[in-house]
Structures are given as structure tokens and as C-alpha cells.
Amino acid sequence: MKRTFLFLMLCGCSLVMRAQTADEKAVAAAVETLRKAMVDADKAGLEKITADALSYGHSSGKVENKAAFVEAIVTGKSDFKSIELADQTITISENLALVRHKLTGETNNDGQPGTVNLGVLLVWQKQKGQWKLIGRQAFKL
User: Fold this and answer.
1) What is the pTM of this model?
2) Where is the signal peptide (predicted)?
3) Greatest mean pLDDT among 2-11, 14-23, 26-35
4) Residues whose CB falls within 8 Å of the CB of residue 61, separated by 6 or more in sequence, listed in order
5) Hey, which CATH number is domain 21-140, 3.10.450.50, 3.40.720.10, 3.40.1160.10, 3.30.70.1450?
6) Three-state SS annotation for 52-95
């Protein structure tokens, strides 16, 4: 009886659980690359992971293109000391991926310490076999 119950539970769990596809894994890795490049203020890394047509929306409503986004991170105007991501979901449709997560972190924008607690929508596009960030919009939680 116990074995039957355990077997049924495992079967039920396997129906609920879903393995990540290769693209979902690649998008998750791209998100982590972006997170690390932002914390490290890595200009080359930021330029490599973002699309030329990037539209980067802040929770304040400010929108930056790729050059302005990279410049703000590299110069410390937008300085992330730490970024933690939670509750991430990834949805893929052909060459587009939508990523939603909660972002918390420590900042030091223009030398002013602060914290952030945001919801974020990232839009990724597969370009020449690589996932590139093409859109981002944050909102205050």
C-alpha cells in the first residue's frame, strides 16, 4: 500500500514538474550574465548581452537606449552594489523570450546609497543564435 501511494505521488509530481528546455536554460543564463555585468559595471559584458535596439525602462518612467544604459552603469550614475532575483518565470515564443522576476538590491547611484525592490519584465530576442536583451521595464512593488 505504501509503495502504491509513493508511486502515485511520484507520477503526479512528474506531471506537474516540467524540465527546462535548452532555450529556457540559455535565457536563464543570459539573465544571470546581465545581472553579473550590472553589478560588476562590465562595459564589454553589457554591450555583448544587449541588443543594439535596446529599450531599457526604469521604474521611474525614464527610458534609455543601449548607449545610455551602458554609460549609466559604467560611470556609476546607476550603480548596483548587489542584485538578487526571485520568482523568475521564462516564457518562450519562437525567437522571443519574456522573463519576469522580482529584483531587490543595494544601490549607490551617484554616490547615494539606497535599496531597490522592483518587479521587472525583460524581453529577450534570439539574434544569430544568441539571446540579447531588447527590452526591459521595471515597476515599483
Assistant:
1) 0.85
2) 1-19
3) 26-35
4) none
5) 3.10.450.50
6) EEEEEECCCCCEECHHHHHHHHHHCCCCEEEEEEEEEEEEEECC
